[in-house]
Write a structure and sequence with these properties.
- Helix 3 (66-85) packs antiparallel against helix 6 (151-177).
- This protein has one domain: Up-down Bundle (Four Helix Bundle (Hemerythrin (Met), subunit A)), CATH 1.20.120.
- It contains 6 helices and no strands.
- The chain is globular, with a radius of gyration of 17 Å.
- By secondary structure, the protein is mostly helical.
- InterPro entries: DinB/YfiT-like, MST-like.
């Protein structure tokens, strides 16, 4: 998805689907808007690439790739929403006892791996959105006794996590095909 006016960017500014206006909303609305925009940014930065390009490790010796970031962020969402906030003992999506970085090391350029990663990511983001929608207050405290944290802090942490990794995605994408983002 390259822009027509700015072919070196993912999308022309006038076609950017992310929210650009001040919401002047309450705290929950603001946090959810920022999180939604960063999630969409990740999708934009990965758009239009073939599986091999998504799996390209552009900064050796790092195992980081765009596909690895999708898998990693699916696992991050799963951990915070299912394991920490809901207290579920659900198995990790990618972490393995012998490979804590399986989200990155298992990100190979095969269509089935790409499809699975996006499916998992979408399932986990939808689960998180439903969890937040059902919460009466941002003061809701996690059910995992080892991780006492409130919903507000989790939302801020996810925004921080996406912001950091979208920065990585900027560099990774530029190494793949020269496209830069806004």
């Amino acid at each position: 998805m390259a822009g027509d006016t700015y072919p070196d960017m993912w999308v022309d500014p006038e076609d950017d689907p992310r929210s650009q206006e001040a919401l002047l909303g309450d705290e929950r609305t603001t946090l959810l808007d920022y999180l939604a925009n960063y999630r969409l940014t990740l999708e934009l930065k990965c758009s239009g690439l073939e599986p091999e390009q998504l799996a390209m490790r552009s900064v050796p010796p790092s195992t980081m790739s765009l596909l690895g970031l999708v898998r990693h962020l699916a696992q991050v969402e799963q951990t915070w929403w299912r394991r920490v906030m809901a207290g579920d003992d659900t198995p990790y999506l990618y972490r393995r006892p012998d490979d804590r970085d399986a989200d990155f090391t298992g990100a190979v350029g095969e269509e089935s791996v790409v499809t699975e990663a996006w499916t998992r990511w979408r399932e986990e983001t939808a689960h998180g959105d439903a969890f937040v929608a059902a919460a009466e207050s941002l003061d809701l405290v996690s059910l995992d006794p080892a991780n006492p944290i409130n919903l507000r802090e989790v939302l801020v942490h996810l925004i921080e996590e996406y912001a950091r990794h979208c920065g990585h995605a900027d560099l990774l994408r530029e190494c793949v095909d020269g496209a830069t983002g806004q």
